[in-house]
Amino acid sequence: MLFGLGLISLFTGHMASDLEWYSHRLVRRTLYSTLDGNYRAPIDVWKSQYSQYYYGCCERGRRYAPAVSERMSNGYLLIGTSGGLNQQRTGITDAVVVARILNATLVVPELDHHSFWKDDSDFVHIFDVDWFISYLAKDITIVRRVPDKFMRSMEKPPYTMRVPRKSEPDYYLDQVLPILLRRQVVQLTKFDYRLANNLDEDLQKLRCRVNFHALRFTKPIQELGQSIVMRMHKMAHRFIAVHLRFESDMLAFSGCYFGGGEKERHELGEIRKRWTTLPDLSPDGERRRGKCPLTPHEVGLMLRALGFSNDTYLYVASGEIYGGDETMQPLRDLFPNIYTKEMLAEEELKPFLPFSSRLAAIDYIVCDESDVFATNNNGNMAKILAGRRRYMGHKRTIRPNAKKLSTLFSARHQMDWDTFAKKVKACQRGFMGEPDEMRPGRGEFHEFPSSCVCKRPYADELSKEVYRPPKLVAINLTKADSLSNGIRRGST
C-alpha cells in the first residue's frame, strides 16, 4: 500500500510540475510574440498594455570616467543654439555630449534670439540653470560664463566655427579639439543636430540624462504647466493633448496645399520666400508621400476613427492656427470639449505672452502629462515628446501615418464610417507608440531613445510559484523517494 501511494505521489507531482512548466512556457511565448509584433491584439487607445514591461534606464556605466574639473579641462566651449524651444533643446543636449567628448568645460548655452519666433529669452528664463549644472556635475563641468580674468588674458577673441550637421565624435576630436587646445575658448554657432545620431552607449545615455532629467523648466513655467494639467484632469479623468502645428510657417515650409484657394497659395508662398534654399515642390506629390500636416479636421477624423468618443476632452497645443476659427470648427464639431492654455489660464498666462519659447514650454508640460499625445507632424516638438513619453513608460503617443491616411481621407466619402474606421485602425498600427515600434538604429535618437529604454525580465512580472513547484509537491516527491529507497532496502 505504501509503495502504491509513493508511486501515485511521484506521478502526480511530476505531472503537476510538467503542466505548470508547459503553462509558463505558453504564457511567456504568447507575451514575447505579442511584444515582438507577431500577434495583433486589439488596440487600447488610451494605454499600451505592454508598457509595464519597459522602463527608462540611463545610469552611468561602471567604467564611466568622472567629469574633468574646470582647471584640468581642455578649455571652454561656448554653444549658440538655433531655432525654437525644442530645436534648441536638441542643441543643448548635444552640446553636453560634445563637451564630454572634448573634455571641455561647457559654458551655459546661449539661446537663439533671431529665429522666426523672435524670443529674447535666455537659458535662465526657461530652464533651471542651477539644477542643470548640479545634475550633470558627474558628467561634465558647466559654468555660467568664462571667467573675466581668463578672458582678459586672451590675445584674441574666442574662435568661432560652425560644424556640419550629424558630425561624428572623431570630427570634433580632429577638427575642434586642436583649436580648443590652442585658443582655450571655442564658440560653436547654429548648434542643432550637430552630432551624429548613432553614438556609443555611454554617450547615448548621457543624451538621455540631459534631455529627460537635467533640462528642467523654471519654477514659474513648471507651476503654470502643472496647474493647467490639474484643471484638465478636474474636468475629465483623462484627456488627449493634440499638437496641431498648423501655423502658417509650418504650412509654408511644407510646400503643401490645404484647400484655401489663391489666397492660401499667395500667403503661404510669400512666407516660403524666407527660406531661399527650399526647392519647388508639388503639393499633390508631397501629400502622396505623407509629407503634409493633417488639417485639424483630419486629425479629428483620425481620432474618432481610432475609437475616441465625442465627449473626449482635448487640449490643443498650438500657436496661431492658420485660418483661425473657420479652420478649427470641424474639429470642434467632432470634439466639443476643446481647451487651450489661453482658455484655462488667461490671467496667469499674460506674463508669458511676449515669449514664444516660454509658451511652448507650457504646452510641452501639458502634452507630456497628458494621457494620450497626438502629433500632427514629425517636427522637433513631436520627436522630443515622443521620445520622452517612451522613456517615461511608453505613454500612448499617436503619430499619423500620413502617407496612408492621405489616400483614405481623399476617398472617405466613397465608404461608410465603419469601413473608414477599420481602415484607419489598420494603417495606424505601428504609429501608436507601442514598445515594439522602437528598434535600435531607427530614426532620430531623440525620438527613439533605444539605448535608454530597458525591458524588464519577464520573471519579475510573475509570482515565484510559477518557477518553483509548490511545497506540497516537493514534499510528496521527497516522501516518494524515501519510500521507494526503503522498499529497495527491504525495510517497512
TrEMBL record:
Transmembrane segments: none annotated. The keyword Iron does not apply. This is O-fucosyltransferase family protein. It comes from the Eukaryota. Belongs to the glycosyltransferase GT106 family. It holds the Pfam family O-FucT. Residues 1-16 form the signal peptide. Keywords: Carbohydrate metabolism, Fucose metabolism, Glycosyltransferase, Signal, Transferase. It comes from Cajanus cajan. GO terms for molecular function: glycosyltransferase activity. GO terms for biological process: fucose metabolic process. InterPro entries: FucosylTrfase_pln, GDP-Fuc_O-FucTrfase.
